[in-house]
Amino acid sequence: MNRLTYNTLLTALALSVVVPMARAAEPANPDPYANETPAQRDVRMQWWREARFGMFIHWGVYAVPAGVYKDKKGGAEWIMAIQKIPKAEYQGLAKQFNPVKYDPDAWVRLAKEAGMKYIVITSKHHDGFALFDSKASDWNVVKASPCGKDLLKPLAEACRKHGIKLGFYYSQAQDWCNKTGNHVDDYLRDVAVPQVRELLSNYGDDTPAIFWWDTPYDMTPQRVAPLLDLLKLKPGILHNNRLVRPEVGGDFSTPERKIPATGLGDRDWETCMTMNSNWGYVSYDNQWKSGENLIRNLIDIASKGGNYLLNIGPTAEGEFPQPCIDRLQQVGKWMKVNGEAIYGTRANPFEKLPFDGRCTRKPFDAAQGKPGKLFLHVYRRPANGKITLPLSNTITKAYLLATPDAALTVADKTITLPDSLPDPIATVAAVEIAGEPVVAIETTPAKGEE
Ligand code: FHN
């Protein structure tokens, strides 16, 4: 074999070894839950599915104009964009953002008394103003406002004290002050990624429990990869579907201001909703939803297997508007009696309910020796006071959650309600059944069988 052929062979041999090693290794999937099993996911989601009810808080410099700028009404948290306020002028408003009445412990107690189990607060909305101390941008509450202190830290401490989970909302793609032009990649590199790292690192091992992305404009899998990867800083953290479009990823979908007619199948979901007509505080917005409406929304959402994230827009001084407090207390009063029919429940098993109301349920738990329970949320008492359930199961017991020691009359599949119902908004009857509900399919009798 001549020298040339020998060298050629050696080179080919070397390349046959080197090339595979040199081939770029497949980039690791940035999604921290890419390899999660359904059972692992159920464990991670359990507290959130149990919670069913949370508080959304939209708070920032936009609470200063509170919907009015130079005597013109329009916009809440979007006022800068809607009223085309020049950046320097808008940033000047931060000099008036001094929440001297901010009492995070009181906020958390109000949420807890309402029956809420978690809070999601806007750490940075589209205007770019951060409610936290950030090294990535001076446009934040510590450096740009007389407040001069991080507002998330005391809230995290109050949530920890009262056993409420805390989540951070973060607008990862829109930023009207920090992002110049369309340099989205520069913005992500210089502001969004460093700030998300700060939010995931600086508020304790348990905080945030949720990351709530929003408006994924111009987001691509490549652009969001570093943000997804950062979630590994908080093992077990939940995040929503709004990091990137199509909004099908994350741990739960987020229908906004609406309740899906029949839920979203097996997908976890959370309806976020304003208490009046705006997310951020608007001084003249008195379109408050009634307490009855809010309670029935909560029931309706739980009966379809979802969570309710109900919004508060605090004032620039750091207070919840009184109509919000009144409604939170009214919902809390109902939850004190009926929370068992909401927390940790699953969707209504029936095609059609034989009464005016909704149904939630808790599964039969053999390990704990707990019977299956149906919760009938009765909005209006049937004229004859009777409800016959299309069930094959045996009904072993029935009682109102308001009067658990007073058994209701049960005759086969029919329960008889008291002459008057204790709660005009929704009276809940708990119906214990043997096993998981087996819904009797209503069949119209064939010809001649009538
Ligand atoms: O543009 C935001 C809006 O201001 C608000 O934060 C809602 C809450 O879900 N999200 C976006 C609109 O979908």
Short synopsis of the structure:
The chain has 450 residues and is an alpha/beta fold. It has eleven helices and 18 strands.
Description:
28% of the residues lie in helices and 19% in strands. The longest helix is centred in the first third of the chain and has 20 residues, at 3-22. The protein is α/β, with parallel strands linked by helices and 450 residues long. The chain has helices spanning 3-22, 38-51, 79-82, 87-93, 104-113, 141-144, 152-162, 184-201, 221-230, 291-303, 322-338, and strands at 53-57, 68-69, 72-73, 118-124, 165-170, 210-213, 238-239, 261-264, 270-273, 307-312, 356-362, 372-380, 386-388, 395-400, 403-407, 409-411, 414-416, 427-433. The N and C termini lie far apart (98 Å). The strands form four sheets. The chain has a seven-stranded parallel β-sheet with strand order 7-6-5-4-1-10-9, with helices on both faces. Strands 11-12-18-14-15 form a five-stranded antiparallel β-sheet. A three-stranded antiparallel β-sheet has the order 13-17-16, with no helix packed on it. 42% of the residues are buried. The chain is globular. Helix 5 (104-113) crosses helix 7 (152-162), helix 8 (184-201) packs parallel to helix 9 (221-230) and helix 10 (291-303) crosses helix 11 (322-338). The chain has eleven helices and 18 strands. The protein has two domains: 38-341, Glycosidases (TIM Barrel); 356-433, Immunoglobulin-like, CATH 2.60.40. Mean pLDDT is 93; it is low at 9-22. Bound molecules: ligand FHN. Ligand FHN binds at residues 77-78, 214-215, 256, 272, 279.
